[in-house]
Amino acid sequence: MNPTTTALVLIEFQNDFTTPGGVFHDAVKDVMHTTNMLANTATTVEQARKLGVKIIHMPIQFADGYPELTTRTYGILKGVADANAFRAGSWGAEITEALTREAADILVEGKLGLDAFATTGLDLVLRNNGIKNLVVAGFLTNCCVEGTVRSGYEKGYDVVTLTDCTATFSDEQQHAAENFTLPMFSQTLKHDQFLQALDTQ
């Protein structure tokens, strides 16, 4: 895999998921621990960046009162609003300090739903950077990660999901995504397999 045509997209590595005190941290911390996803992702970011992979941070955030979601009466986005999570300007919406950020990294804003392409300039950013390989990590494995890899697959990217750099609400949901859903739209790799694939070029 050529690092210079590869992007690592980091979905919602924000305090409300990653950090004790975050709104949804208690809901995801067990799977985070099982997959060791924060440490694995930090390692992957550092090593991939050195090899020339483009690092893209993909947070989600909403204005006070969640005007973007006012018609939602069910589902995960209603849960976000009800829990007062990912509010623009809040500590919970900040990207975790567990991941390093450098000037050459790209921050893509505007994510308001499950598919990181839908309401953002992600596709344009990838194409402007000559990206062919879309590598995805983050939260939630069976929600925003899955939504993004589905879309990336349909847009013609060579998609990889880093399964040990993802987490969701239960081991059952994590395993179902890893074993059944994600392989339909991506190659499912561990972070070390991905880094090894980059190293061989």
Write the layout of secondary structure elements.
Layout: E1 6-11, H1 15-18, H2 25-35, H3 37-51, E2 54-58, H4 75-83, E3 106-107, H5 122-128, E4 133-139, H6 141-154, E5 158-167, H7 171-181, E6 187-189, H8 191-199
Parallel strand pairs: 1-2, 1-4, 2-3, 4-5, 5-6
What does this structure look like?
By secondary structure, this protein is of the alpha/beta class. The protein has a single domain, classed as Isochorismatase-like (Rossmann fold, 3-Layer(aba) Sandwich). Helix content is 40%, strand content 16%. The chain has 8 helices and 6 strands, in the order E-H-H-H-E-H-E-H-E-H-E-H-E-H. It has a 6-stranded parallel sheet with strand order 3-2-1-4-5-6, sandwiched between helices. Helix 4 (75-83) links the parallel strand 2 and strand 3. Helix 3 packs parallel to helix 8. The protein is globular and about 45 Å long.
